[in-house]
Design brief:
Blueprint lengths: L2 E7 L5 H12 L4 E3 L8 E8 L6 H5 L3 E9 L1 E3 L8 E4 L7 H10 L2 E5 L8 E2 L2 E2 H6 L9 E14 L10 E8 L5 H12 L3 E11 L2 E2 L6 H9 L6 E2 L9 E5 L4 H5 L9 E2 L10 E5 L5 E9 L3 E8 L3
Parallel strand pairs: 3-12, 15-17
Antiparallel strand pairs: 1-3, 1-14, 2-3, 4-11, 4-12, 5-6, 7-10, 8-9, 10-11, 12-13, 15-16, 17-18, 18-19
Length: 308
């Protein structure tokens, strides 16, 4: 079994637990995920099965879209609802314009300090492991990119926003962005404090929540001997050009040897030097990732092959 499963992860399970569950359910040893999702969060968690696990580095690079709830007036030790309250401000008012201006200031490239609740390693230890022991260590800020922040809804009393106001945000951002830290930093910049009280991932690259399968749905289909939930490996790289190769050169491709342009079939566009392509068999099986190169003549050289 080789391919990608677009899983709708439930809250309360870690990404590792989802992988372990599917490993047992499908009887597959080679399974991994395409980007960690916090245990308390729900949403899109791409799962790579079999030879597709060799695509994990591409999956991690994708932009993500989240829906998150920011609660104003309360700061926590973990920057989300699971932590202890570290600060509370009950007597304040914030106008919608003030909120909009602060949100706008976080769009574009920003620097974030990974929270102690994150999985980043410092000195060989995960930060969340140190945090559970009550320790706090120095962390290096990281540059991330917030492409957009949009207000989806605001729940509050009166005309202005006060203590306990909940703001539902839609955030599109680069890999490595900590949404909990973004919520915390927004609260800090407003001068009232805040934390992330809800999080769901709406999309990860080409995978969207509307098309995702719950674990229950996957279990039901698998019990019927069906694999409708399994997407082909090439679905992980939807923007790559896909070309089929002549059956006589499939073994050359699988061995990592170059092939010539005349060995490529059904080429949808004109290929240029430096372009990366997906090589498929006539049946649509993903054989390799390759680059168009110029030596004495044009060649197509595999740089990642997918053997059995």
């Amino acid at each position: 079994m080789d391919g990608v499963i677009n899983v709708l992860k439930p809250p309360g399970m870690s990404s590792h637990q989802v992988v372990a569950y599917l490993r047992r359910l499908l009887g597959q040893r080679r399974i991994g995920h395409g980007g960690t999702l916090d245990p308390g969060a729900s949403g899109v968690l791409p799962i790579l099965v079999g030879r597709a696990t060799r695509l994990s580095d591409y999956m991690l690079d994708y932009d993500k879209t989240y829906a998150t709830e920011l609660t104003l007036g309360i700061a926590t030790s973990t920057q989300d609802a699971s932590g202890e309250t570290t600060g509370m401000k009950t007597d304040f008012t914030v106008s919608p314009r003030q909120l909009a201006d602060v949100l706008a200031s976080f769009q574009g490239p920003i620097w974030q300090t990974p929270p102690m609740a994150s999985a980043v390693r410092v000195g060989g230890k995960r930060l969340y492991e140190l945090g559970r022991r009550g320790l706090e260590v120095q962390r290096q800020p990281r540059k991330v990119h917030v492409h957009s922040i949009n207000i989806m809804a605001i729940w509050h009393e009166g005309e202005k926003l006060g203590f306990g106001t909940r703001v539902l945000l839609k955030i599109n951002c680069s890999k490595g962005t900590y949404v909990r830290t973004l919520c915390h930093d927004i609260g800090e910049k407003l001068g009232v404090g805040g934390h992330m009280s809800f999080l769901t991932r709406m999309s990860s690259g080409p995978f969207h929540s509307a098309d995702a399968f719950t674990l229950e749905e996957i279990g039901e289909l698998a019990g019927q001997g069906r694999a409708d939930f399994l997407l082909p490996m090439q679905s992980a790289l939807p923007h790559w050009v896909q070309v089929k190769v002549h059956p006589l050169v499939e073994e050359r491709v699988k061995n990592g040897s170059f092939i010539l342009p005349e060995h490529l079939l059904d080429v949808p566009t004109t290929l240029t030097v430096g372009e990366e392509v997906i090589l498929l068999s006539l049946e649509g099986e993903m054989l390799a990732l390759a680059e168009i190169k110029k030596t004495d003549s044009l060649i197509c050289h595999p740089f990642r092959v997918f053997g059995k």
